[in-house]
Description:
The structure is a single chain. Strand 7 (200-209) and strand 8 (216-223) form a beta hairpin. The chain is elongated and about 95 Å long. The strands form two sheets. Strands 1, 2, 3, 4, 5, 6, 7, 8 and 9 form a nine-stranded mixed β-sheet that branches. Strands 11-10-12 form a three-stranded antiparallel β-sheet, with no helix packed on it. The protein is an alpha/beta fold. Helices cover 51% and strands 10% of the residues. It has three domains: 3-298, no CATH class; 315-426, no CATH class; 455-640, no CATH class.
Amino acid sequence: MEEITMDRQESEHQKKAEDVEELEGVEDEFDADDSTEEDSAAIWSRFAEDELPSMAKVAAVRRAAAAGEDVGLPAEFAAALAHAAVDPSELRSLLKRPTRVNVAGGVIEAIDLDLYVPGLVPLPTNNRTMERRVYPAAGAEGFVGPLTGPRSTPGETSTLWIEGESVSHVLEETERAHEFIMSRNNLRESIAARGIAMPVTVVLFELRHRDGQSSMPLLGTADGSSRITNAQDILGLTEEQIHYHFPTNRDDYRRTIGRISGENPQDLRPTAHRKLIRQRNALITPARVFLRFTPTREGYDYARAVNAFVGMLHVDPPRPWSQTGKLEAMAEAVLDVLRGAEVLDDPVHDYLAGLLTPAEAKAAGLPVERDEQAAYVLASLLREHHRELVERGIRDVTAKKSVSAGRRTEVIAELALRPTRSIATTLDPRDPERLRADRMRAPYLRCTRLARYATVPWRVTGRTPQALLEAALLELVVGNASPTEPEAWVARLELAALAQYHLTAWGGLQREPMGSANADKRGPHQILELMLHDELGLHVLAQAIVDGRAKTRPRRVNENGEFELGSLDESGKWQEDPEGKPMPIEDTWLRYEAYPAGTVVPRPVTAPNETPRMKATRLKGQIAQFIEQTNLDVDELASVEEPGGARLLDREGWSKPSELLNQLMEIHSQISYWARVAERRMP
């Protein structure tokens, strides 16, 4: 069998993707009337008016099916593949010499041949549609939730499985996916004029139904669902036909193909002639069929390998999904890795994936408030000791050898917002709640970069905002003596995680400004960090939770928790006014008034009668805080721009910092020595 390495395969896909970008991804610039169609010889067409391949006889199909079983394919796979093959005799030959494709965790045997489009279905769980899925965690009325899968059994296998509640549930989800693809990735005119140029990736999957309806073995496109969806739209096929009718009624399936391939376009009137030419071009697709997966690494199964393969094509260029689709695909891979490593049990996995309804989550003792749902995801997945597993899941579906901290937090934050995005997709585009959900995504993802989320073992406790505030204020006092102790941060971080949900939704925390040279370029996570170090910030965070849960815009309070009153001036800006009403929390107020650039994290006060151990703990905490502040200052320094927009230090540099660097190296050496001492003292 031919060996193909992943590097070579990626380069082949790169070249092919560049070709398909030219052939399939552009809008046709010709007027599709009869005269243009007749005069467009310069436009490539797969079949034009040439004869299509003759449809194979049933006996040839049966021989090909038997050949499939002879090489170890399940009977239903062999039969479906034989009926879909344009040339069953070619299929019989290819089955004897499959190509070996190296993928994450194992090897896939594959063959390349032409298939009839009516014999395929777009994979119902296509990741391109993830941003429009409505998950049960959203609690939306009338939505059952997405289909489950694809999944597979451990070990060597040829079959994936996808599960729905019922036939009607499957059809509802597949129709939603069809509508989404046709609105976002419409290739109808390109395929109708030129055919499908790039091979699609085909797998066998079993479509299961929880209500007891018989399962359906189907050939689905793990990659290429947009092309197949558009081609089937040109052919006039329905979701019910391709998922349920054709697989059980092969005679009707063959009649549909025979009508298109057997009719002579020259015998038809102009309109019917043009329609038939379009359908002929859409009838057949080149395909790479995955026959069998054999694992070579523990913890990998067929479903994970296929997701990794498809992710290589779409999460990174050349043919990317949307940003949300990419992050969702990576999040799914992360959850699979954590469940495979037995870090998550099935209920918690399903909760984090948004697959439990609010009622099911409550019954399982899990949070149901929207801000608590999101915070639970952060607390569960941002932990430093999960980092390696999270990065492994992300690497599975990307071509990256390493994963940045920013990418890791973005993936987890996207998963945290899954219920919120789900409910938003069911609302009118002008609905204020949907607008808030759209607006909060970028700043929420940035807030999640707060480093302490990963280094402190905090959790969601279900305490009221007032109880959390009291605990956080106590931590602020205790933290003066031992600022690096985890116990000095757990309540403050829970408060921050809940509040960032509402502050980002209502505009109280926004992504760093772009463009203006004089704007504050700090990220919202840096503002959030400063808020955790004083009473004003903690009171503001608590008030944001109270108001956000009441579905009102969060209001400003002072360090005593009293509302800041004001009124709008002629320019629309809030000004303090004792006779006014509570002013809203605004990003500009936090950035330029409450925590202006250059704000230093407060230095802990020396406690009276401190012991040597207490003093050492206090000094270590002060050093940690000053280093953290130095990081913030370096970030701010890196963003200083000249009037023309160029970054000042990128042009001028930093002259002769050698003495400073020597001091930093000495500090690094001393702390490293103490770290080694601590390691030697460990049992």
